Amino acid sequence: MAGASPIVVAEDLTRHYRVALKEDSLLGTLRHFLRRRYQTIRAVEGVSFRILPGEVVGFLGPNGAGKTTTLKMLTGLVHPTRGKALVAGHVPWRREKAFLRKITLVMGNKQQLIWDLPAMDSFRLNAAIYEIPEGEFRKRVGELAEMLSLEKKLHQPVRKLSLGERMKAELLAALLHRPEVLFLDEPTLGLDVNAQVAVREFIREYNRRYGATVLLTSHYMADIAALSERVLVIHQGRLLYDGALEGLLARFAPYREVRLTLGSPLPQEALLPFGEVRALEGREARLLVPRERLTERVAEILKRLPVEDLEVREPPLEEVIAKVFQSPLPVEEA
């Protein structure tokens, strides 16, 4: 990918929504009809990034942070208030036919499959929309169904499929036209652990086999850690971080986790001089220690405490992200 031109470009992407304010009373309803008041919701504010062909990029953020709105702008479903975007050489909100052939959007809480019909019928409908010849259609369905372990489920009504099987079928339908850019919004939402692993493995293999570019949002840190070397972090509509996953830990977690197995139980007060006590149960303890004082603190722990085993780790990614999102950001007023 060295020297390649970006396939996804976002420059100062911004989306504001103007919503009416209404009081919960009869008088408030009357006032609402006579003189409406409005509030501006800043869903996305000045987001800029570039993605190279073949990259798998994780997009992290809490509910309402602006992830889905950003994806909708990049797929042309929503016009930005200001800013520019190019995806596969096209301006998304023009919704040109050539553009739609190059992208797909999968949302974990939405479905395109027809509920009472076999999944194969929906696939045939998509093949007709994208003008895929019959021979090529059969070849692609066979390849994708094999990758998804879905061969025996194609002729069952969608309503009889499990949640995991339905998600696999949704992915098959969305990828039938072999898009260059995949926008995946919570593709493992609500799935059990085994189904999550299967979907992750499929996305990884699809990216390896076809060189597709993937922008993936997820609340499950395991999805991001398994698939993405690069992450974007968005909070309150603003992009906080764009870089390597390891760099995210270094920037937002200026501490390391020290796990101890003690020779005998100790009270929490005995551990406080060495770091923040995150957990203490019997002889097992977890401490958070500032990175710059790690060597010094570990030496003190080994010298002063009855330690049977000691392990130093990066803090769990979930905890790091939670700390980021718990810190409110200043938002400029219009």
TrEMBL record:
One Pfam assignment: ABC_tran
KW Isomerase (keyword) present: no
Gene3D superfamilies with a match to the protein in the record: P-loop containing nucleotide triphosphate hydrolases
The entry's keywords: ATP-binding, Nucleotide-binding, Transport
Secretion signal span: none
A GO term for molecular function: ATP hydrolysis activity
Domain ABC transporter: 21-261
Record protein name field: ABC-2 type transport system ATP-binding protein
Taxonomic path: Bacteria, Thermotogati, Deinococcota, Deinococci, Thermales
